[in-house]
Amino acid sequence: EIVVEQCLTEGTALLKVSLKKQQQKVFRIDADQVNIESIKELLIGETIRSYRDHFNLDVDFEPRWFTIIYVDFGNYKTLHLVAPTLELFNLWVNNLEKLYLHRRNIIGGLGHLRKRQHLLLEQQWKQSDNDGNSRLDFDDVTKLCRRLNINMPKSLRKTKFKEADEKGDGLLDFTDFLRFIKLINKRAELDKLFNSLAKERINTLTLREFKNFLVNVQKCVLKEEEYDNLYYKFCDKDLKEMNLEGFSYFLMSSDNCIFTPEHTKVYQDMTQPLRLQLTGESSVEAYIHVLQRGCRCVE
Questions:
Q1: Which residue of 14, 51, 155, 197 has the fewest CB atoms within a 10 Å radius of its CB?
Q2: Quick one: CA dihedral 269, 274, 275, 278, positive or negative?
């Protein structure tokens, strides 16, 4: 568990600034409720200067100013905040970065991926539990599915809801909801692929079978130890072998990236001058900056 400074969980007064107004508000960090992964950038120092200039605010604001760029239902948004003191500014920035790094690190291996998914679902569940009774009806689960970008026909959603509702009372607790998510994530074509590969043992994929899949189907060219590392990374710790869940997580992970691994890093000559729109390094910040200055067409 990440411990957030008590004053930040209780709430502190910050100045929220925008082009139209400045407003003093109380902000707090709830580590269970905040979807920290929606934060794309945390800007401080010189990186916020364009905003300060655009808002026509005094230079004294800059050392205590931090801007959060985040995604809300698919839309990029900005939150500009100024702390009353440098000490409070450092507290906010350090705690936000600590939370972000913690969540980002929960991304490797089957155990971590399970934990990461559990954290995300738990956050969204708590936000949907308006009554505080830790149980959601079908309409509440439907709304939660929309927030999680889970789209399916109502009839299928209703069927899976009933399957997950073991008590039969039309309500799902969090354990039931996890069962519901597992049911809707089940893919017949993935089961078929896994079973076609797992011939030596029932319900598990051996290292040799996994390596054959990578070499012959995925056309991977790796070092011998890299095949081993990938296999054990997605193995169930108790079984010490890869089950269907681990195989599914592998297929959806960055380890099974469609791109050539060498191309995930800068591999071209970056000393050349910027001539074409395809040769420079793009960022969300540039788009936000020009749009706020009145530009209505970005190429």
A1: 155
A2: positive
Distance (Å, rounded) from C-alpha 161 to C-alpha 140?
11
pLDDT (mean) for 183-199:
90
The arithmetic mean of pLDDT across residues 98-104, rounded, is 71
Residue owning tokens 């969090």: 174
* 47's tokens: 């990186």
pLDDT in tens, 4-19: 888 998 999 999 998 8
List, for residues 15-35, the tens digit of each pLDDT value: 999 888 899 999 998 866 666
Q: Which residues of 152-188 are buried (b: 16+ CB within 10 A; e: fewer)?
A: eeeeebeebbeebbeeeeebbbbebbbbbbeebeeee
- How many C-alpha atoms does 276 have within 13 Å on its Cβ side? 3
Model confidence pTM above 0.85: no
